[in-house]
Specification:
The protein is α+β, with helices and mostly antiparallel strands. Helix content is 26%, strand content 22%. The protein has an eight-stranded antiparallel beta sheet. Helix 6 packs antiparallel against helix 11. The two termini are 17 Å apart. Keywords: Ascorbate biosynthesis, Oxidoreductase, Signal.
Length: 625
């Protein structure tokens, strides 16, 4: 059967099951009286070390006054606290209390979800910290206002995304990090008895303390309200241009200065890159584009089970060729469906106001003149796509799921289960990193097909931030998602390549980790890369000198305690350590601790039997891609 027929059959299969679905569950579960004897996980169902995080109690305040009371009572009792969000998307253990803590308290912002005010004249919006990005985009858009840059996934809460430094892609203006658009913030912190054990601190733009709270990892207190600077609604024009990756190293340095919302999606095993050419256009430009990214749509549990089972079989049989074939099919489907974007069916460039280009998810609610991207009644999609900003900036319609489908990573079904390695490398160093990855691909073309299965490497631009734990230089962010076994002692096919890329980034090129993603290895020594960390620590000591909002894990990340590396049998397989002995890998399964292939300081888990393939096989693989 030809690749074209396979793609068409896969499309039909995908569309048939794109029906009713299930919304994500609450990450907090309590077994006694709905609020006691609780556990918390993330939306993926597993933290890097796979521990189950527990709390004695969970509370769900609905107002700032209730937050003040909760923090005051906990401080009076010297009780540890952690902040949880509606969907809990952070991979590291930011929400976890210490193991063995029998009295810990979870404070959920689930019901701190109100829009406080919208100031149209001064172009500002004030929201409670539990408001989702989707809510903010929608409500601001009704007032003709937009956030200029945001993450691409709209299921994040405002408190969560600023706490971890989440961002979109731009080197223009103040850059793509939402926390750099804060003009005022209210945070509830512990206090002494003279201040009734809790204090509301109101921080204005220009306050040195605000630079600590902009990216706080949740260790300073409970952010209750945030005021953000907006802009008047505007339109964008987007073209996805597929090119080979021969010039990617050089282009990565300059492309972000040429286009305001530029990014890349890199398929290294196929030696292909999707360049996103994305700029503002006049509001009168025709177009009504919509971003409903396929990876954020509801997917039937049956489809998820089939794809996960197939990948597990390929992993267990070392079927690298099968993974590469599946990867080509997946990326071809994405390209055929324009990655979930759709035009207005007229062939015009895709143009839209910023508030409608920021987010998406209404293709099933289409009115006259717009429809689903695959609707046979309209013409095909043409580039450039032009759309309102609130319709193209972010998406996430799987959050609306009902019935038999869900978000692809929902841990309640047998679906995607993955690691994420996400980091930023300064623009002055990024060319060398990209070329090192290309050298690894040249050594073994099949090794990185696993990345193409997860839609490649997303590369987004970020600027220098005033936040003490924000970006230190203008940089390029690399977001890498890849297979994770349900068995923590099971090695991954060609896992040494991804371990070497991880260590190349963090230790050779000095990359900064994304605070809301990554395995433990990414945070080793990371805090020493932030020039203003001492200022952050001073604010931390001032706001919470008892460390009530800290945990063993956050203390380790901030360099206050040892233990970030968990050295034990098989620890390198999950990124809990860098191997120094064979036992840290899986010697009984043929994986041993060895130096990297091009970065000799790296120590990676290698299967020597997979380390070479004959030249003819390499030629065949490269030709097929």
């Amino acid at each position: 059967m030809s690749d074209t027929k396979i793609i068409k059959l896969s499309l039909i299969f995908f569309m048939i099951y794109l029906v009713n679905s299930s919304p994500p569950e609450d990450p907090i579960k309590c077994s006694y009286n709905k609020n006691f004897n609780c556990t918390i996980t993330n939306t993926y169902g597993a933290f890097p070390d796979r521990t189950i995080c527990k709390a004695a109690e969970a509370v769900f305040p609905t107002t700032e006054e209730e937050v003040i009371s909760i923090v005051a009572n906990a401080t009076r009792e010297n009780r540890k606290m952690k902040i949880a969000t509606r969907f809990s998307h952070s991979i590291p253990k930011l929400v976890c209390l210490d193991n063995g803590d029998q009295d810990g308290l979870l404070i959920s912002t689930k019901f701190l979800n109100k829009i406080i005010r919208i100031d149209q004249e001064n172009m500002m919006i004030t929201v409670e910290s539990g408001v989702t990005l989707r809510q903010l985009i929608s409500e601001a858009g009704k007032a003709g206002l937009v956030l200029p840059y945001t993450p691409y996934w709209w299921g994040l809460t405002i408190g969560g995304l600023i706490g971890t430094g989440a961002h979109g892609s731009s080197l223009w203006g103040l850059g793509s990090s939402v926390h750099d658009y804060i003009v005022q913030l209210r945070i509830v912190t512990p206090a002494d008895a003279a201040n009734n054990y809790a204090k509301v601190r109101i921080l204005e733009n220009g306050s040195p303390d605000l630079n600590a709270v902009r990216v706080s990892l949740g260790v300073l207190g409970v952010v209750s309200q945030v005021t953000l600077k907006l802009e008047r609604v505007f339109k964008r024009s987007i073209t996805f241009s597929e090119r080979d990756d021969s010039n990617l190293g050089e282009d990565a340095v300059t492309f972000g200065r040429q286009h305001e919302f530029a990014d890349f999606t890199w398929y290294p095993s196929q030696r292909k890159v999707i360049y996103r050419i994305d700029d503002r256009v006049p509001n009168g430009t025709p177009g009504n584009a919509l971003n409903d990214f396929l990876g954020f749509r509801s997917t039937p549990s049956l489809v998820l089970t089939i794809f996960r089972t197939l990948e597990e079989i390929q992993e267990s049989t070392n079927d690298a060729g099968g993974k590469c074939t599946t990867a080509i099919i997946n990326t071809s489907i994405l390209k055929y469906l324009s990655y979930g974007w759709r035009n207005n069916g007229t062939g015009y460039p895709m143009v839209g106001f910023q508030n409608q280009g920021q987010a998406s998810g209404t293709y099933l609610d289409s009115l006259e003149g717009a429809t689903c991207s695959w609707d046979h009644r309209v013409e095909g999609i043409g580039y450039p796509m032009v759309g309102f900003q609130n319709q193209v900036q972010a998406s996430g319609t799987c959050l609306d799921s009902l019935g038999g489908a869900t978000c692809p990573w929902d841990h309640r079904v047998k679906g995607l289960f993955f690691h994420q390695t996400t980091f930023t490398i300064s623009l002055s160093k990024v060319k060398g990193f990209i070329e090192d990855v290309q050298r690894l691909v040249d050594l073994e073309p099949k090794a990185l097909c696993v990345l193409d299965l997860y839609n490649g490497i997303l590369m987004r631009y970020v600027t220098t931030s005033n936040a003490y734990l924000g970006k230190q230089e203008d940089s390029l962010d690399f977001d890498i998602t890849y297979y994770r076994s349900k068995d923590p002692m099971s090695p991954r096919l060609f896992e040494d390549f991804l371990e070497e890329i991880e260590q190349l980034a963090f230790f050779k090129y000095g990359a900064l980790p994304h605070w809301g993603k990554n395995r433990n290895v990414a945070f080793i020594g990371a805090i020493n890369k932030y020039k203003n960390v001492d200022k952050f620590m001073q604010v931390k000591q001032s706001y919470d000198h008892l460390g009530l909002f800290s945990s063993e894990w956050t203390d380790q990340v901030l360099g206050l305690k040892d233990g970030l590396s968990i050295v034990k049998e098989g620890c390198a397989l999950e990124g809990l350590c860098i191997c120094s002995k064979d036992i840290h890998c899986a010697p009984n399964k043929g994986y041993f601790c060895r130096p990297g292939r091009i970065y000799k300081d790296a120590r990676v888990c290698t299967n020597p039997s997979l380390s070479t393939i004959d030249i003819q096989t390499r030629k065949t693989i490269c030709t097929s891609m």
